From TrEMBL:
Organism: Halogranum rubrum
Keywords: DNA-binding, Transcription, Transcription regulation
Stated name of the protein: Transcriptional regulator, IclR family
A UniProt-annotated Pfam family: HTH_IclR
CDD domains assigned: HTH_ARSR (cd00090)
GO molecular function: DNA binding; DNA-binding transcription factor activity
């Protein structure tokens, strides 16, 4: 009897994993048919079709003209998860203020399962268009926000993240060696803020600061990013760090005492 239950659990887990793999493929492809998803994942068309039919019947994917796309059914989960983050509730208005003051893009990122998750983004009418959106996963080692977070995690946790996700190269400026990254993280702790000098996207610069609890636990990071042609010199090295540190101070006080 125990063996049967174990087999059933193993099957259920495998089936769930397959469904989520298919959902992720639909999301990444934006809109795709059974054949395209089957080829992308190396699964049989019949398997893909069965999972998609189930997901469609439960309202989590939509079918239009023979192609599937993720439905808005996931929006309530994502928004509910985001609203539970106190850092989001406190920081979002400050993100808007930073974007307005700098005429650039401001971002709020948290770490989850070793990846950076963009929790909030504010833009100005002069901000450049990027590939980012709320909910997007970004590597921690190649972004300003990510490095600001890593700098305040225990070394063992950082080593676990590197072991799981690696240090993939996104541009010529990406840090891809563990010891070089640890040296950079030490500099960030000493300085108080992190720089991204085109490490994920060439030509883009970013300044980021961590958001901490009174117990020195890192909750996430906030940043301002923009084209290197506008973020340079004293603005990059002094003005933006000072602006972010002041916002950090207010956000941390609100989180601790509101």
């Amino acid at each position: 009897m125990v063996e049967k239950e174990t087999d059933e659990k193993s099957y259920a887990v495998k089936t769930t994993v397959t469904s989520f793999r298919i959902l992720e493929a639909v999301h990444e492809l934006e809109k795709a048919g059974v054949s395209e998803i089957s080829e992308a994942l190396g699964l049989s068309k019949s398997t893909v079709y069965k999972h998609l039919s189930t997901l469609e019947s439960t309202g989590y994917v939509l079918k239009e003209d023979g192609s599937y796309k993720v439905s808005l059914g996931f929006l309530r989960f994502g928004e509910a998860a985001r609203m539970r983050k106190k850092i989001y509730q406190v920081a979002k208005d400050h993100m808007e203020e930073l974007a307005s003051k700098t005429n650039e893009m401001s971002n709020l990122v948290v770490e989850e399962q070793g990846r950076g998750i963009l929790l909030y983004r504010a833009t100005s009418n002069k901000a450049v268009s990027l590939d980012t959106y709320v909910g997007k996963e970004v590597p921690l080692h190649s972004t300003g926000n990510g490095k600001a977070i890593l700098a305040h995690l225990p070394r063992q946790r950082v080593e676990e993240i590197i072991a799981e996700h690696g240090l993939p190269k996104a541009s010529e400026n990406t840090i891809t060696e563990p010891e070089a990254l640890f040296k950079e993280l030490e500099s960030i702790r000493e300085r108080g803020w992190a720089y991204d000098e085109g490490e994920r996207i060439e030509g883009l610069r970013c300044v980021a600061v961590p958001i901490m609890t009174p117990e020195e636990v890192v909750l996430g990071a906030i940043s301002v990013s923009g084209p290197a042609s506008r973020i340079e010199g004293d603005r990059f090295r002094e003005e933006l760090p000072d602006l972010l540190l002041r916002a950090k101070n207010v956000i941390e006080m609100d989180i601790a005492y509101k």
